User: Fold this.
Amino acid sequence: MEITVYTDDSAFDALRPAWNPLLRRAPVNHVFYTWEWQVTWWNAYRPGDLRVLACHQDGQLIGIAPLFLSETDGRRTLQIIGCVDVTDYLDFIVDAQHLNAVYAAFADYFAARRDEFDALDFCNIPYDSPTRRMLPGLLEARGFRADVEQQEVCPIIELPADWAGYLRMLDKKQRHELRRKIRRAQGSEKAIDWYIVNGQHNLDEETAHFVRLMAASDPEKEAFLNDDNNLRFFRSIVPLLQERGWLQMKFLTVDDERAAAYINFIYGDRVMVYNSGHDHRDYADLSPGIVLLAYSIRHAIEQGYQHYDFLRGDEAYKYRMGGRDNPVMNIRAS
Assistant:
C-alpha cells in the first residue's frame, strides 16, 4: 500500500479519472465529495496549502484524504477541502472493501508527520461515516488525543410512497396549515405556477434571478453574496452540477413574476435543499417559499426519491415540514 501526497493543483488532474469511481465504491457518497465539488471549492477559496493524500494498492486508488493545511495565529491545522462553509457534508473517500487498511495507513501518515501540523480538524462528518467510527481510535492508538463532538444537525424527511402518506407524517396543526397555504395559493386570482430549470432555459439568466431572490430573502444571504469568493463559487458550481444532472433549480411564479426559488441537489436517492430565496415584499400573503417547498417535496416523492435532506441547520420550518435530526460531527485531534 502506497500513499502519494499532492501539495498543488496537480492533485485534481492526476486523480480525476479515478476520483468519482472510488466515491461510488465508498460506504458514504454525497455530492460534496465529488471531484467536481472539491475542485470548484478549492479554486474559489484556497484557504491554505493542499495536502491531498491518495492511497493506492496494486495500482488501484482505494482512498483519498482531500486535505489542506491552514495557519491561524501560528497554529497549523489540517482540514478537509470544503470546511466549513458552503459544504454540508465532508469526509475521507475510502473503498468499502479496504476500510481498515486505508484508515490505518492515513493514521500512520498523520503520526509520522506530527511535526508538520499542530492539529487535525475534520468538520461536517456524517454520523454514519466510518471516519467517525474508526479514525479517532486509530489516532489515539498512535499517541494523539482525539475528540468527537456533534457540530450541527441535518434535518431529513424519510419520504413515504405518496403525498397522502407525507401529509399523515405531519402533526395535525402543521398538516392543516400546509393545506391551507396551498389552497390559498391555488385559489388566488393571481396565476400561480412553478417550473424546474432545464435545457430550454437560459441558465445564466435563471441564476441571476435566483441570486436576486436569495439576496432579498435574508440579510445574511445578501452578505454572503457580497463576498467575491462566495459569489465566484456559486456561479461556478451551478452550471457544472447542472451539466452533470445533479442540480435542480426551481421557481414559483405569480403572474409570471418569480416569487420564490430553490436550488436542490439531486444525487443518488436523495434530494438536498441547498439554498432558497423568496420575495417577502410583494408576495408574503401567498407564502411562496412554503408553497414551492411543498411542491418540491411532492415532486421528490413522485420521482421515487427516498430522502429529502434539508442539510445543516436547525431552522424551525425544517421540522414543521417533517424533518428529523441527523447529527453532523467534528473530529479534532492533536
User: Anything to note?
Assistant: The chain has two domains: 2-153, 156-309. The chain has a mean pLDDT of 97.
